Amino acid sequence: MELRLEAPRPEHRQLVETYRREFLNSGDSIDGSAGLAWCSGFDDWMALLADNSHDETARPGCVATSVFLAFDGEQLVGMVDIRHRLNDYLRRYCGHIGYSVRPAFRRRGYATAMLTLALEECRRLGLSQVMLTCEKTNVASARTMLHCGAVLQDELLMGSMTIQRYWIEL
């Protein structure tokens, strides 16, 4: 595995559109994609990423984020969304980092490798600790976070879901 993170660029259009379709067709949520599921298309998503790249231009309710595509060779295997700070909603339900791995690439160590690289990015941003969350039923995500040094803070109800909140010291 030679995983690397790259910021999305116009030449990634086809890869990102395929990634989006795979998740939507499978009924899976595209976590860590900074709203890819809700955007009307690639151009709309890239505009959202540009707006949310700085607090001064972030859309209402959003904070500055850095979004990365995770590649192994030429294969797009996942996405990572790093929020530079927490607002009330993120502090309660989402945390600093969201990520997703394409269904065909799961159970191969990509999530742990992606989170490790994301933590390096967080250090570059000057963060000293990061919060991560997952649904209690998402055992694979919890295992990934624990493998990277996360400590469970607590559990919160969000509708019918139980959200686990973890912290990692950097």
TrEMBL record:
The record's section on CDD domains has:
NAT_SF
What's the protein name? GNAT family N-acetyltransferase
This protein's record includes keyword Heme? no
High-level lineage: Bacteria, Bacillati, Bacillota, Clostridia, Eubacteriales
- Alphabetical list of Pfam families matching this protein: Acetyltransf_1 (PF00583)
Which keywords fit this entry according to its UniProt record? Acyltransferase, Transferase
Q: Which residues form the N-acetyltransferase domain?
A: 1-170
> Superkingdom of this entry's organism?
Bacteria
A GO MF annotation of the entry reads: acyltransferase activity
E.C. number(s) listed in UniProt: 2.3.1.-
